[in-house]
Amino acid sequence: MCSPASRRPGHRFLSVEGGGSVGRGERDTVARGARLCEAAQAVVVDHGRAAEAVRAALKPIHDAAVKRELDAIPVARLQDVTEGRLRLGSVEKSGLRTVGSVLEAGPYRLRQIPGVGQRTVDQMLAAARRLAEAAHETVAVHIDVERPEPGTTALVMALHVLVEAGPDARRAVDKAAVLSKRLGPLLADARLTVGRIRLLLAGQEKKARAWAAVTEIRSLVDEAERSGLPELLAQASVDLLRMPPSDIAAWVDFELRSAEYYSLLAEISGRQPDAAAAEGFLPDEIAERVRTQPLDDAHRRVSLRGYQAFGARFALAQRKVILGDEMGLGKTIQAIAVLAHLAAGGQSHFLVVCPASVLVNWTREIEARSALRVTVLHGPDRHLAFADWKGRGGVGVTTFDALRGFPAPGGGEVGLLVVDEAHSVKNPKAKRSQAVAVWAERCERALLMTGTPMENRVVEFHNLVRMLDGDLADSLGERERWAGSVAFRKAVAPVYLRRNQEDVLTELPSLQQTDEWEELSASDEEAYREAVRAGNFMAMRRAAYLRPEKSAKLDRLLEIVREAGENGQKTVVFSHFKDVLNVVREALATAHTDGTALFGPLTGSVPAGRRQQMVDDFADVPGPAVLVAQIQAAGVGLNMQAASVVVICEPQIKPTIEHQAVARAHRMGQVRPVRVYRLLATGGVDERLVKLLETKTRLFDAYARRSAVAEASPDAIDVSDTELARRIVEEEQARLGMTDERLTAAE
């Protein structure tokens, strides 16, 4: 218990025989300790209250979901539970046809059914309760953003408090719990030093314990103040007590950050995914070692789901590994967690190697999700940047091709090498693969990441494993017949971890949206400048696809489609422009996307009946498929829930156009989470559109998406297209030094 110290005005100190003296410094120390302890306890209480609010809002929703589940289970299932011992014909004839109705009827009504004795009633109810318990543990709550109700609104608002408080609040709560546990007993012992009579009458042992407690309190308080803990606790309390400005604001935030809401919901409800699945079905001895691996979050700015924390610990405990999680599970966040932990432990240099198409994304993610310094080692000044990174440290982010031009490090210089899209270096004869292999050998730790399932590609898998552990790779030669089997997974467990969405996302986020920022290639940049010089706004928007042989956006699009196909998923690709769709279709047709069916382009010129047939064919084809569609033509009226991956080739002028297009896949009947990728180019029209429309997007989310009129007519809300186009053209001409040239009318 935390208690403030009593004070006597004007009393400097008191000499106590055999026990030292009671001075103002001791009283101040105890008072400082008491204030810190009270602040810590307040944070713990505030967090507990916020978590309890979530549980209270969740309970009626979860109970209703369990009831719906039980009402859908036929009463015949009770036979399975009791191994056929029950005779239920008379029960069904009485009108009780589901397990839910049996539980609701209760023992008295069941006993009134002709031919049903007490023993049958007892067995029936026991079996029904077993099914109810199972349903209670397994039924997940899904928050429907299209039909918000008072109950789900209360839940979203309760979750918003914790999501908005963020990782700093969780860090404050963890530190507060430890601190209050330590300070409480010390303050109880030290209280003796603030009372003259009490200290005078105490025995020597109590006095010694009291003085020792004061010394330890002073040390704890000084350390807390040096680390900024009082400020962290104060801010956490403020954040945990702050309510969202409105239910609309909470719903908008939920749509933007649904994964964080669902993560907290799973954690607070205790309905975590199956532990074995979350741990990638690793052998017990490896899993146990990973569980006990510490994970420091001091430099991290993002909360982790349980399986993500395990993935980061796996990389730390095993040192050189392949993380093969299915796309959409946050491999990048897990890598950042590893980087942050190692930085907290004193490591200074890290390197991320990735395709050029995701280089900007990596830079932005590290900056947003951690406190680590980032240096881009790419472009004409890459060698100067490399020298700067060598001298100052932090995370260097480079491409496979650029890596070949950098000198390999000496042993111990680089704390972690991260290789994204690691399947790109599966060919040991390729120069990029050889460069990565040298760096992997020289670095203390290596994390290779790929969303491509590797179990059925044993030869390719061998090549990746060899970069990390040559002996293990050699031993796999005799196990090729185990590809995809439990035995194979066990054999590669020391270096390989893979989890699937359906196994670990018990509370599936309804929608996952990713802005994919790409750097324009030199060819893209040239085409873009020509469009800007001409003052052609629409040409500026599609310039990134005008020269497909060197298009950065197109390269990233092909990577997304390929990975989706590898995971058996269907993809819809949207663009405003017909010529962009033709470029995309041609690229997909000539790319190596084995087994992926291709449909479209679906445009406004395609008759309505043919459009639906095209969508039906896309849905009916077994396995992966791609539908290329014009966003205006396919974004309204066609249901595409067969697709779980959506690619938007360029940002749209009206936010509702994107929302409606995504809603074609993200709607009733969708059994997988929908992953949306919006392809954006840095530094030009895309970036300006995103910034100018950001506020309008939030307003559309808050109002237009809840309006039947707006849903039916995206043009109902004007965003001043012509004025917007004129403004962006002028700003881009000024940025590129073309202000002296005549401005032509934007299309």
From TrEMBL:
Annotated SUPFAM superfamilies: P-loop containing nucleoside triphosphate hydrolases
Residue ranges constituting the Helicase ATP-binding domain according to the UniProt record: 312-471
Molecular function per GO: ATP binding; hydrolase activity
Domain Helicase C-terminal, first and last residues per copy: 553-725
SMART domains reported for this sequence: DEXDc, HELICc
Region annotation (Disordered) ranges: 1-26
Database matches in InterPro entries: Helicase_ATP-bd, Helicase_C-like, P-loop_NTPase, SNF2-like_sf, SNF2/RAD54-like_C, SNF2_N
Pfam families associated with the record: Helicase_C (PF00271), SNF2-rel_dom (PF00176)
Keywords: Hydrolase
Protein name: Uncharacterized protein
Originating organism: Streptomyces sviceus (strain ATCC 29083 / DSM 924 / JCM 4929 / NBRC 13980 / NCIMB 11184 / NRRL 5439 / UC 5370)
